[in-house]
Every structure is written in C-alpha cells, then in structure tokens.
Amino acid sequence: MFLKKPETIELIESHRSIRKFLDRPIEPDVLESILHAARWAPTSHNMQAYSVVIVKNPETKRKLSEVCGDQRYVRECPVFLVVCADFYKLRLASEMHGETLAVEELENVLVGSVDAALVAQNLLLGSRAYGLGGVMIGGIRNDAQAVGELLKLPEYVFPVMGMCLGYPDPDKEPWQKPRMPVQAVFHEETYHTEAVPAALTEYDEIMSDYYTRRTDGRRTSGWTEQLAAYISKPRRKELTEFIKKQGFNLK
Ligand SMILES: Cc1cc2nc3c(=O)[nH]c(=O)nc-3n(C[C@H](O)[C@H](O)[C@H](O)COP(=O)(O)O)c2cc1C
C-alpha cells in the first residue's frame, strides 16, 4: 500500500543541521510564534523545568561562540537560544509553601534536561515550519560557569544546549547525514542485542561512503571508528561541579 506521508513527517525527515545562515534577521512575530509554540512540549509532572535565554546581542553571541569552542555559527546566526534546565521556579514554589526542594538525586537533573530537550526539538521544528533552520550546540556546556555568569543564570538553572537559528543559506545546503539502520534503534517487544552488530557494520559502510563522497575521499572512517575515538575521552568534567554549585546537591 502506498502511504502518503503527512507534511509533518516530511518536515521531520528532511532534517539537517544548518550552520550557514543568510545575513537576515528573524522577524519578531515569527520568533515569537516559534517560542510560544515550543512551550506546548510535554513536560514531566507539569514541572516545566526549563527556560530559554534568547540572545541577539552581537557581543554576547561573540562571547558565547568562544565559550562554545569558537564555533563561528554561534556568532553568525541572528538568534542564539540557550535552553536551560530550570528548577529556580520550583525553588520559589517550595519557598512559597514552606516545603524543601529535594534535588539531591540524579532524577531531577534528568527531568530538567529532558524537559529542555523536548522544548529544544519543538523550537527547531517550529523554526523549520517558517523556513528557518538551525543547529543545537552542546558546546554551551564546555564552560557552564562562564555561560552562567554571562547570562546571569540564577541558582537551580544550568544550560543544557544552545541553538543557532536563522534563514539557511540556500547556496550552502548541507548534505543529509544518514541515520542508523532501524535494527540498531528499534526492538520488537524486547531488546535484541543480536541484531545490533550487523546493523552497525551496515551503518559503518553507509557512513564511510557518505564521508568519502562528501569530502572527496579525505575522510573515509565509519561510525564505529569515529565514535569509539570520541567516547574514549572523558568530557566536561567541570559540569558536575557547576550543577552542584547551582544548588543540585547531588550525592
Ligand atoms: C544536544 C546536541 C548538541 C549538539 N552540539 C553541537 C555542537 O556543539 N556543534 C555542532 O556543530 N553541532 C552540534 N550538534 C549537531 C550534531 O552534530 C548533529 O545533529 C549530528 O551530527 C547529526 O547531523 P544532522 O543534525 O545534520 O542530521 C548537536 C546536536 C545535539 C542534539
């Protein structure tokens, strides 16, 4: 049977991260519409344990781009969002009602991060619906302390990801990066470890071919080789300390 894909599925499946933007601002009403729509993400226990700092100031973007590992698109995009996990509002609620704020388990760090991620994906998809594009920026966690100071993040707030938004440069449309075969990510009824190695081998071939074509042979490695190297080093060790300093007295 031929299934006609709805527009939303087409939009999701045409995703690619955008790192080259036109020198064109985002219209205020468009940005407002995207931001307001993103709030309709589902949220754990209706906590809405997130907040978004909207940065347009060129100097702030420049500083953030440095903090994010000198990623040029952070300063080049017209709007940079910093999506945070946020228990500041929960803290106020606790104070108002004489309750304690129990945030010493990993659970609430996850809750805030998941809420932030759901809103972030809504922001990206909402942007795409208006012809905008963007890229999420984990580099915002490189130096969370500096980000906290620059953006005046109060206690119980930490950055989860940044997001560059803008009108994509049509002359620089990026290739779409292939995803893993479905056998590596979906499991019927129970997890099927036996299906994973073959799926990864298949994906290595797909990614090796993708990089070979995209870089005219300068890069040929597959996914497992690349990610094994990446995951071999501990990253952002200071982040745990910053999260604790913000008030999450993790055990
Ligand atoms: C939470 C998160 C953080 C990311 N951080 C960065 C980043 O700091 N810099 C960057 O260039 N891309 C970043 N990306 C984009 C990923 O590299 C990209 O999504 C992935 O390689 C797949 O490519 P695609 O989005 O074009 O399909 C991030 C993506 C996510 C979801």
Walk me through what this model shows.
It contains ten helices and four strands, in the order ααβααβααβαβααα. The protein has 251 residues and is an alpha+beta fold. It folds into two domains: 11-174 and 234-246, NADH Oxidase (3-Layer(aba) Sandwich), CATH 3.40.109; 182-220, no CATH class. α2 packs across α6. The N and C termini lie far apart (54 Å). Residues 15-17, 71, 135-139, 161, 177 line the site of flavin mononucleotide (FMN). The site of flavin mononucleotide has 11 residues, from β3.
List the domain count as a whole number.
2
- For the record, give the distance between the C-alpha atoms at the N and C termini, rounded to a whole number: 54 Å
Strand order of the biggest β-sheet: 1-2-4-3
Give the overall shape: globular
Which assembly state applies to the chains in this document?
Answer: single chain
User: How many helix segments?
Assistant: 10
Content-based structural category: alpha+beta
Family: Belongs to the flavin oxidoreductase frp family.
Keywords: Flavoprotein, FMN, NADP, Oxidoreductase
Protein name: Oxygen-insensitive NADPH nitroreductase
Enzyme class: oxidoreductase
Secondary structure: elements and pairs:
Blueprint lengths: L6 H7 L14 H11 L11 E6 L2 H10 L4 H5 L2 E8 L1 H9 L9 H24 L3 E5 L6 H8 L5 E10 L29 H19 L8 H9 L6 H8 L6
Antiparallel strand pairs: 1-2, 2-4, 3-4
Bound molecules: flavin mononucleotide.
The site of flavin mononucleotide has 11 residues, from strand 3.
Protein name: Oxygen-insensitive NADPH nitroreductase
Keywords: Flavoprotein, FMN, NADP, Oxidoreductase
GO molecular function: FMN reductase (NADPH) activity
